[in-house]
Structures are given as C-alpha cells and as structure tokens.
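[job 0412] stage=fold_complex status=start
inputs:
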Amino acid sequence: MLACRVLAKGSGTAHRLVVNAAAKVNLALEVLSRRADGYHEIATVMQAVDLSDRLTLEDAPTIEVRTSAADVPTDERNLAYRAAAALRDAAKVERGVRITLDKRIPVAAGLGGGSTDAAAVLAGLNRLWRLHWPSARLEDLAVGLGMDVPFFLRGGAALGTGRGEQLTPIRSAVLALVLVNPRFPVSTAETYGRVTPAMFSDGRRARTVAGALASRGAGRVAACLYNGLEIAAREAYPQIAQMEAALIAAGALGAMMSGSGPTVFGVARSWEQARQIRARVARGRWECWAVRTLRGPAIRIRAEGSRGTL
Ligand code: C5P
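[job 0412] stage=fold_complex status=done
writing structure:
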C-alpha cells in the first residue's frame, strides 16, 4: 500500500479542520502523443512549492463553498465542491461540509490551485468523516477529479506519466524559485488544444530533469527545464516570453512556463537571490512570489484548537 504523505496533526475528534494546500510547478512537461480519449500522453516532473491556499472544513448538513475570491465559483464548477460530492457519494455518507476557501494560488495559472484544493478536501474529509480510506483509494477517486489531483495527495516531487496521473516519487533537494503570473487566466484544455504533433517529444527530457533534481544542483535543474506546451502558449500570449526574459535579466539560472501556463518560474541560486529576483521582477505589472520547493506533503491538516503548525 502507498505511504500516506498527508501530514495530520491534532485530535481525531475534530468538527473543524484547517488544511493547507500547496501549489506545484512542472519542472518538465513533455507531450508524447494524443490519445483516443482526447487527453494527451505526457511525461512531467511535478514539484510542490510553498505557495498555499488555506481551507477550513466544518461539519454542515449540505456541501457548501464560501470564498471571498471574486474569480472562484462556489457551485459544482468548483473542484473542491466536486471533491466533497465525489467522496460523499463514494463513501455513502449522509453528511455535508462547509468549505471556506482562502485563495492565495492564482486561478487557471498552471500551478494546480484547483487540484490542490480538491486533494485538501479529500484528505480533510477522510479525517473529518473518519472514513479511514487508505491513500491508494483516495488517489483512485482523485483521478476522476483531474489528472494533477493524485500528485497533491503525495506532495514532494514526482515523475508523472500516462495522462500525468501515474506517479513515481523523486527524491529532491530544496530549491528556491520565483513565480511570475501575468494576472490573467488560461484554460488547460485550451492550451492542450493548441498542441500539434510537431510539439511532441519522447519523454527523455523529463527523465533528465528528474535525474538533475535527484542530484541536487539548482544549476543542473535550471539547465534542462522543458515544457512542450510552452510553444503552444507563447504564440497566444507573448507575455510568457517577456516574463521569462525578465527573470533571466534579474539573474535567474533558467526560466520556464509551468503546466499549461500562463505562470512562469525562474530557478534561483539561493533563497536570498530568489527574493532579490522577485523584488526586481515585481516592479513590472506582474504578480510575483519567491517560494521554496517542498520535500514533504503538499497537504497539511490541523484540527482547530490543536497546537500543530501548518
Ligand atoms: O485533468 P484535467 O481535468 O486537469 O485536464 C483538463 C483538460 O486538459 C482535459 O480535459 C484535456 O483537454 C487536457 N489534458 C490533456 N492531456 C492531459 C491532461 C489534460 O489533453 N494529460
């Protein structure tokens, strides 16, 4: 059975949980082919980073999502809502939950914000509803919500194959990155829809990045970043190339788009340098964060009132 990487602290009888849900970047993303089911076969290196949403889960008669974020729906279109409904139906529980979503990860940004919220709801409700589902069973349900969702139940770094949902963990060192988002959303389906066979590759680049990550050098990782979706996205959004050029001009060792975009990230030599790069690039019209990569869980659960740190 898979080891459960979700970090849980506090009592087992809580009626209210606070859950931290971390974002990811794709240090590599190769599109290998188009599948008959409309998806693409990919090889990707996903890495959790410490930019997180915060969700509060409370016992309630029905499923309800609350958020102050203007661009986030609170009905079935919200992946956190769908995660709660999917688990309720699969576990045959007659309970609801009030999900209060404090969004910090930009929406439709290539950082997996919706997927990590969904993973947080699955892991949190497994605890709140005392289901005791093993992580492999949660992962099976997670795939039905989105191909990135199983990754967030594990965290750290992983090589994703198939549609991105078949995961092999990668042991990695902590890297300092700078994320830059142009303040507009891009749909994942739209970016994949722009892919042509000329953009396909064979998966070797993703394996090279996985090897570089395991060998622990920021310079090595920076030298082999790759995203096969970037060509598709760059044509539609020239800002992607501009943000990458700004990161390199500010001293980043390498820069690349994350996932289906439009967020780009730069690899820094150190945390101090990441903060300097962030300060320089943030002078533009973009939103920027200096972040560290996470070696441990992406989802961290705390029972309200417990002393555990998030
Ligand atoms: O899995 P998820 O719901 O995040 O995927 C959103 C859309 O991205 C899919 O409907 C599909 O159009 C596209 N996609 C793809 N190949 C993948 C993953 C996603 O074509 N491996």
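[job 0412] summary: The chain has a mean pLDDT of 93.
[job 0412] exit 0
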